[in-house]
Design goal:
This protein folds into three domains: 177 residues, Dihydroxyacetone kinase, domain 1 (Rossmann fold, 3-Layer(aba) Sandwich); 140 residues, Hypothetical Protein Tm841, Chain: A,domain 3 (2-Layer Sandwich); 219 residues, Serine Threonine Protein Phosphatase 5, Tetratricopeptide repeat. Helix content is 44%, strand content 13%. It has 19 helices and 14 strands. A six-stranded mixed beta sheet has the order 2-3-5-4-6-7, sandwiched between helices. It has a six-stranded mixed beta sheet with strand order 11-10-8-14-12-13. α11 packs antiparallel against α12 and α13 packs antiparallel against α14. The radius of gyration is 26 Å and the shape is globular.
Length: 599
């Protein structure tokens, strides 16, 4: 059996942990139109230097994107007038943290709001999603679209979906030009979403990338190549012998435009845009050869005329040797946006402008929320709703504390065994913070619960529960009643569930906490509509939550780590996340019943 030996990879770097930071430093020194926030390097936000940072006065829609480092020039290299307003950078192949994304939103967003363009990876979806919900609680108008342009892999099992690849850059250009034209947030988001739906991408590589500070272990060997290799070096769809570029281009075009998968709605006879994207270590000569072969093949083999060709390195994977091809339907509106002027340094248009004096770092804008700008004025006395809310919160937190060991036991069978410990940390933090919650204000209380969880829980569970709370907060803020009505609580739960579905991509039956919360919501709505006493309705809905959580024993996981566990193991225990949600919901419901909630 042959053994692949890792050999040291040669890199012109300093500390491998500093490569993204030092890239950003060089970028802003090189291009006068770019700047970064004062919190750098912990907060890696690159933004347009001509924007009044943190003033909230920018008069157009802000377009923000980002992701892990290692894909340069994406995304910071596409910041500039007519394209991105800001880019949020994570460490190599790591999603940027929520605090950095929030800092970017606060830095550049004005009254017209901002659009987040997110590549479809779980970490990016969750971190950008939580940042979006947090920003909404601060009063920002935020829309989010996800780019899923990968055409290499067959429809995946579960909820991961298609990956976001180099087509994201074309979507960013469309959105940036629409924003520069003065369109509303809804219209900018609509144009970006449409662009994301008419672009497809597939990559091919001769060898995977090497991470800074790591050894080179080429799993392909000297005579093999790989189709569909991911931009983080993950294995692709197929490994073959190295083929002539003519054959490679034909295969990739055929996969993108396949009628069987129908990933991209580009029928024969369409006019298209072509992007040949180098993955980091591919000579320009080879990229131009691929471009020269792709244009006539699209016409002869697929009946498509190429309107625009972009060739170069747009979204790389460190030093991966290979390229990707992106094809976008060339609707007249899309061509208008692609042709619009931009000063983004790495869009294939010359950058103009004189070099200004050395820039000083710009301070990070503070949160807009009242809790961060003013000392809290706690009520001298809780009203009836405040007392009820406090009792429900304490009961829910204590329920989680009481089943910590059981949750860990269940999670040991289907996960990494720490669900109970993780939830315990969040529950303890809530109990520590509850005396400082503005309990007479239900919306702001849920905002604070989300913040408590965000500081203490960590991991996917922490993000998901924080999203639940922030979305509920936003919905509760719409209530015109001084006392929250029963149906408004149901609407808040519905909004929280919708947010988790949006960012986590889970649905009922996927073996998650939604399998407890969705039945609870359905039952609560039914009971309230039938005229049931509110406290009774909450009790009946809590029974539905527990039944739903128990039913997960009969489900095959389509989300989370349990997807990698055998069906036999899954059937031995209920989903711990669902049981946790059912437990805190049930405990809160019984506390509500004990207080005889009748509003």
């Amino acid at each position: 059996m042959s053994v692949v030996r890792a050999i040291p990879a040669k890199k012109l770097i300093n500390d491998p942990l500093d490569v993204v930071n030092e890239f950003i430093e060089g970028l802003v020194e090189t291009y006068p139109g770019l700047n970064y926030l004062e919190g750098f390097p912990q907060v890696k936000v690159v933004f347009r230097a001509d924007i009044p940072c943190g003033k909230g006065t920018y008069d157009k829609v802000a377009v923000i994107s980002g992701g892990g480092g290692g894909h340069e020039p994406a995304h910071a290299g596409f910041v500039g007038e007519g394209m991105l307003t800001a880019a949020i950078c994570g460490d190599v192949f790591s999603s940027p943290p929520v605090d950095s994304i929030l800092a970017g939103i606060r830095a550049v967003t004005g009254p017209k709001g901002c659009l987040l363009i997110v590549k479809n990876y779980t970490g990016d979806r969750l971190n950008f999603g939580l940042a979006a919900e947090e920003a909404k609680t601060e009063g920002f108008d935020v829309e989010t679209i996800f780019v899923e342009d990968d055409c290499a892999l067959p429809p995946p099992r579960g909820i991961a979906g298609r990956r976001g690849l180099a087509g994201t850059v074309l979507v960013q250009k469309v959105a940036g030009a629409a924003a520069a034209a003065g369109l509303s947030l809804a219209d900018v988001a609509a144009e970006a979403k449409h662009a994301s739906e008419v672009v497809g991408t597939m990559g091919v590589a001769l060898h995977p990338c090497t991470l800074p500070g790591m050894g080179l272990a080429d799993r392909l060997g000297p005579e093999k190549m790989e189709y569909g290799l991911g931009i983080h070096g993950e294995p692709g769809a197929a490994v073959t012998n190295i083929q002539p570029v003519d054959d490679v281009v034909s295969h990739v075009l055929k996969k993108i435009l396949s009628k069987e998968t129908n990933y991209v709605p580009i029928p024969p006879g369409s006019r298209v845009v072509l992007m040949i994207n180098g993955l980091g270590a591919t000579p320009l000569m080879e990229l131009m050869i691929a471009a020269g072969k792709a244009v006539p093949k699209l016409l002869v083999e697929h009946g498509m005329a190429v309107e625009r060709v972009y060739t170069g390195s747009f979204m790389t994977s460190l030093d991966m040797q290979g390229f990707s091809i992106s094809i976008m339907r060339a609707d007249p509106s899309i061509l208008l946006r692609l042709d619009a002027e931009t000063k983004a340094p790495y869009w294939p248009v010359a950058v103009e402008g004189n070099r200004p004096p050395t820039k000083l770092p710009v301070p990070i804008p503070p949160s807009r929320s009242a809790k961060s700008s003013e000392p809290r004025k706690l009520p001298l006395k809780l009203n009836e709703q405040g007392k009820l809310l406090k009792a429900a919160i304490e009961a829910g937190a204590n329920a989680i504390i009481n089943i910590k060991d059981k949750l860990n036991e269940w999670d040991s069978a289907v996960g990494d065994g720490d669900c109970g410990s993780t939830m315990f940390r969040g529950a303890k933090q809530i109990l520590e913070d509850i005396e400082n919650y503005p309990l007479n204000d239900a919306a702001e209380t849920f905002n604070e619960i989300g913040s408590s969880i965000g500081r203490s829980m960590g991991g996917t569970s922490g993000i998901i529960h924080t999203i639940l709370c922030k979305a509920a907060c936003i919905q509760l803020q719409t209530s015109s009643h001084s006392v929250v009505m029963p149906k408004t609580w149901a609407e808040a739960l519905a909004a929280a569930i919708a947010a988790v579905k949006k960012y986590g991509k889970a649905e009922a039956g996927y073996r998650t906490l939604l399998d407890a919360l969705i039945p609870a919501l359905s039952t609560l709505e039914k009971e309230l509509d039938s005229g049931s006493d509110p406290s009774t309705a909450f009790i009946i809905s809590s029974a539905a939550a527990l039944d739903g959580a128990q039913s997960t024993k009969h489900m095959i996981a389509k989300a989370g780590r349990a997807t990698y566990v055998s069906a036999e193991n899954q059937s031995s225990v209920p989903d711990p996340g669902a049981m946790a949600a059912a437990s805190w919901y049930s405990a809160a419901a019984h506390a509500v019943k004990a207080k005889k909630y009748k509003h």
